[in-house]
Structure formats: C-alpha cells, structure tokens
C-alpha cells in the first residue's frame, strides 16, 4: 500500500497499484479502465473529483447501479441530472480529466445485491475487466454494506487491481448545522443530499457551488409546452429532472442542446407549471417552436 505518484497527498488516503495507464475505451466497455464507485445522481464536485483521480491512473468510468430503487422498494424520485443531459455534464469534465471524457458503466443492482465484498471485487476484476477502482473514504460495499475501504484495498491487491481512496470534497461555503440536511451520515462533505436540499430551498447560488456548474432543468417536448407573446409555459409533467422549489427565479436562460435561444429570462414555478418570460427575445420564443427538438433546457442563474 502506497501513494500513487502524481496524486496529491492531501487527497489520497490509501492506494494499491498494479498496472500502468490504459488507453481510453468506449463508455459501454470499461475493460482495462479505472472505475469510480459511488452514487452518481447529482454529478457534483465530489463526483468530479473521483473522475479526476481515476483519470490519473487510466481511462475513467463512473460505475452506477441500475434499478436500486425498485429492488429496495424506495419511492421513485426525479434525478438531479436528467438522463439525456448526463453526457453533456461528463463532457464538461474533460478538461479536468486529462482530456479524457469519463464514461458510464451501468450494472443491474439485482445482479450485485447479494454479493459479498470479495464477490463484488471479483466481479469487477473477472467479469468487467476493471483495472482499478477509485472511491471516497467512507465508501461501503458488498451485501449489507459489509466491506469498507480497508477491505477494498486488500481485495483489489489480491485481484491485481489498483485501489485509490480519496478524501471527501468538503462543502466549504455552508455549515451543516445551519444549511445542510439533517442526516447523521453527513460530515460536511459535498453530496447529492445537499444538492437536493439546496434545490428544495431554492438557493441556486448554493446549488451552483455544490455542482460546479449551473443547474439545468430539462423539459420534454411531449408535454404541452405553449407559447404566447414573450412567454412560454410547460406542465411539470414534462420535467425530466428535479426542479427548484416554487417561486420566481431571475437571470435564467433557455437552451436547445448547448445553443442559448433565450437570454436573461425570468422563470416562475408553481404547483403545476413552469413559466418562462423574456422581455427582449419574443422572436426567439417563436423560433424555438419551429425547430426540430425533443428536449429543451432551462439553466438557472445564481439568483
């Protein structure tokens, strides 16, 4: 067990290494890559740090479990990042990851739920061909979360994989006592729970600080989106991810792909609809509805 060369000592807690840097591979195949382990709902600054550290050792991937809520009987809830928008967010991490864009590897939760810590690491090594893993210092894995990072390092060493354990990215701007969620597992780190809490409070400046980018709300055209003059409206049923709480938000933009169609918009959210109003871009609203698109994005400012 030793520190990986090139990884800052303030970040890395413990490392086990076997091989050299691998070439990038497709997001559908992580064989030979370095996978970050965690729950990647919000794609926040802590998740970006894991991808960054993974990119130092090889081609970075985020490993996510599919169907966890269904298997565990959790109530369904909207994601922080819409599925259709994840590729854009990961592409924005490329400059932080040595010009490598992190890929995503999806594993059915039902296929790993009953695995012991050893069986899980064996699956990563033999079935998925992973060359190394990166995770946070508080990561637990295996059936009933029986494994910790110490065991992860030992098992990865046994199976010939690198294990890179990194310190949590701390929320430096807000104190859990007065701004964070009431969660006993919270120790002041950036987390998806904090992002959801900030969205529920409508604190978009705080959301941006946690994400490292502005929050983008995605809407499907399949909803009854309407335009009238310099306004458009859409039912909440057309939303593809989590919106801020009800209220008025200024300094927003409307985008198709990454092209801004409306600048400096006001957004109003009520119990059933979301409304966008622009004082200067009425023509752009008309242009928006004659274009061929499936989703539009509303990007919130920091106010």
From TrEMBL:
Pathway: Cofactor biosynthesis; FAD biosynthesis; FAD from FMN: step 1/1. One of its GO terms (cellular component) is chloroplast. GO terms for biological process: FAD biosynthetic process; riboflavin biosynthetic process. Gene3D superfamilies: HUPs. One of its GO terms (molecular function) is FMN adenylyltransferase activity. It holds the Pfam family FAD_syn. Its EC number is 2.7.7.2. SUPFAM superfamilies: Nucleotidylyl transferase (SSF52374). Residues 111-176 form the FAD synthetase domain. It comes from the Eukaryota. Keywords: ATP-binding, FAD, Flavoprotein, FMN, Nucleotide-binding, Nucleotidyltransferase, Transferase. InterPro entries: FAD_synthase, Rossmann-like_a/b/a_fold. This is FAD synthase.
